[in-house]
Amino acid sequence: MNKLKVLKVIKVMLLLLLLISQNMVAQIISDSTLITQKKYQARAPKTQPFGIEAFGKSQQTTIRWLGMAGFLINSRGTTFMIDPILEGFDMPLLIDFPISAKDVTHLDAVFVTHADNDHFSVATNVAMSKATDVYHTTVYVDSLMKNLSLKSIGHIIGETFKVKDISVRLTPADHAYQNAYPGMSKRWFKNEDACGFGLTHLTAAFGQPATPDYCLNI
User: Fold this and answer.
1) Residue 13 domain-assigned?
2) How many domains does the chain have?
């Protein structure tokens, strides 16, 4: 092989090495960009605080998010909370609560779906007990509330009751996950220990039977 051919081979090899190195650099940059894009934390929008105006008379229905699974609903002047957590949670949170428990002025009812502390906040419900007319929940959670001297009523799945003009029905929930983890709890949980709530606002014209104004399933 003469010198000219050798030089041509060397040039081809150098060109190949250059292309390979450029491809590797591009891949590294692409991978680092991909990794950077994956490093994020989902965050809720900025908290919208509210005060006593949220608990007053109203001609409409307003739903306010409390954080976690909690909501405040003012349904034409009937006020109630669902799974409120406003203080005392045992883990850091990425949100500020929109109101403190001590600033809640009046609730016609509080509904609690089950006993997990991200739904049944002992600190919050005890702090709001003087402002709350009644607590509604499952039979099991009612037993826990009774130990806290809360004004609670336990219901079976499918039972219907009223809170002023709101018709409420306990709906089934499958949330007895504790049983799948031996040692997690000494208690064997039942499906009826957790529930949902079907809410219907009833309105009636003078001399006419009440009809549903809206239905909300939680």
Assistant:
1) no
2) 1
